[in-house]
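task queued by scheduler; priority normal; single chain, no ligands, no partner chains; default sampling; output format set to C-alpha cells
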Amino acid sequence: MMVGAFFKKVTNMDFATLVSFTFIASLLVMSPGPNGVLIAKTVPTSGQRAGFANVAGFVAAFYVHGALSIFGISLILVQSAQAFFFAKMLGAAYLCWIGFKALREAWKGVPTAHDVTPAKQRRTLAKAFGEGFLTNALNPKVSMFYMAAFPQFITQAHGALGASFTLVMIHSFLNLVWFSAMVVLFSRLSGATRNSSFQRWLKGVTGVVFIGFGAKLASLKP
C-alpha cells in the first residue's frame, strides 16, 4: 500500500496501472528482436563498452519516439499512408544494409585475433551508439507501441504529459537492464567467441536475421 501510494503521488498514476504496463513492456523487451542481435554482433568484436554504447543508443531512441508520440507527430505517422511508408522503408533499408554488410564480411572471412590489432577490430563508442540509436529510431514499430500503449494506460485524470513520460522511462529502464545483462553475458563469453570460424558464423547469422527483420518491417501494415 505504501509503495502504491508513493508511485501515485509521484506519477499521478496508480500502482496497478504501472505494474500492468511494466509487465507488457517487459514481454516486448525480452522478445527476440534486432537489439539483441546487434549486441551479439558488437560485444565479441568490439568489447563490453561498445555494447553498453549500443544500449545507450537504444535508450536515447526510445525517448525520441516517446517525445514524438506525446506531441502527436507519431499519430500523423500512423494515420498518413505516405509518411508511414517512408518511415518504414527507411528503417527497413537500414536494417537490410546492416545485414548485407555482415553477410559480406562473413563471405570474405574474418582474420583471427592475433592477426588483427584491437584498434582495427573495435568500433568507436560513437559508432556503436549510433548503430543502437538508428536501429530503434528508424523503426516505426516503437512509435506504434507507444501510440497503442498510452491510450490504454493514461486517462485525463493522470495528466497526459507526465504520465506518458513515466511510461517511456519505465520502458527505457527495462531495456537498459535487460540489454546490459546481455552485454555482460556476451562479454564473459568473449574468449570463446573471438576465433575466426565463430566470427564468420556469427556474422552470417547476423546478416540473415537483420535482413529478415528489414523485410518484415517493410511489409508492416499501418
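post-processing summary
- The chain has twelve helices and no strands.
- Residues 33-87+111-195 form one domain.
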